[in-house]
Known about the structure:
- The chain is an alpha/beta fold and 358 residues long.
- The chain has helices spanning 17-32, 43-47, 87-96, 108-121, 145-166, 181-189, 204-216, 250-261, 284-302, 322-327, 338-345; strands at 4-9, 35-38, 52-54, 101-106, 125-129, 168-174, 194-196, 223-228, 267-272, 308-313, 316-321.
- It has a seven-stranded mixed beta sheet, with helices on both faces. A four-stranded parallel beta sheet has the order 7-8-6-9, with helices on both faces.
Amino acid sequence: xxxxxxxxxxxxxxxxxxxxxxxxxxxxxxxxxxxxxxxxxxxxxxxxxxxxxxxxxxxxxxxxxxxxxxxxxxxxxxxxxxxxxxxxxxxxxxxxxxxxxxxxxxxxxxxxxxxxxxxxxxxxxxxxxxxxxxxxxxxxxxxxxxxxxxxxxxxxxxxxxxxxxxxxxxxxxxxxxxxxxxxxxxxxxxxxxxxxxxxxxxxxxxxxxxxxxxxxxxxxxxxxxxxxxxxxxxxxxxxxxxxxxxxxxxxxxxxxxxxxxxxxxxxxxxxxxxxxxxxxxxxxxxxxxxxxxxxxxxxxxxxxxxxxxxxxxxxxxxxxxxxxxxxxxxxxxxxxxxxxxxxxxxxxxxxxxxxxxx
Length: 358
């Protein structure tokens, strides 16, 4: 009997999701002769008992396969709602669709929900990690992160010329409420003078001192600052502005503080990249990763495995228990990591040498 496999995307979108779908459909169909059903809008599709058969050439445009380089997700996605309040209805929808297995693509929050569903529903389930935050444990890379870093670096490449032309400090606020991987990687790659992440508290005085040193010692009249939306201010750092965090955004808050501590001698501008970081054509690495993850997920189902997540470790795809992934997620930046120390050695201000203790 032909195996029926469902696939869905959950949480915020990111580049590379369609490449995963493409790989799953191609491998499952060509290698195992399975039927793949796309579940629309994550678990809402199961709740509403909706699915679309996915075929290798079903979305071709005059023979051209668009999924490899198309951003977003053709299945749609949601990152809100009380899914766990409808567990029994979702499980019933899974059986109504006559699914034999499910592949779920999501971040650590979605994976935690999937895990509860597959345990209670006794599903055969394989997880594929994706998030621009790169904070899923047990994997060095997730789908979407590389493209998001490239997008931010491209923005920094553009802003640095304006900053230099007008002697300005350009503050670029990027995503990352809890984890600073995105700010750290893009800041180093983009040559930022200041990188502020949630894991390492910073002081306003420290930032201003560094900017003054760039000007007075190195005759640099401009600077690039990358700040994660969840960056944390040290407890003893002065607060000069009435701008409330996070309502005005960390980038704007920092700009007001810099203006005040410099007695308005520093010209500051803020760019909030927002959802621009989620969009765009996936990078070559994200396409490679998505394809490898999709193929590996199908093979795991074929060998009867379940409750596993595909992961990228030491240049290859491996399977890790989903419980172990969730136990260590979210995976935050280690303040003593090689990349943090690399940034500091290049003269980048990253905040306190050691994170504050409670």
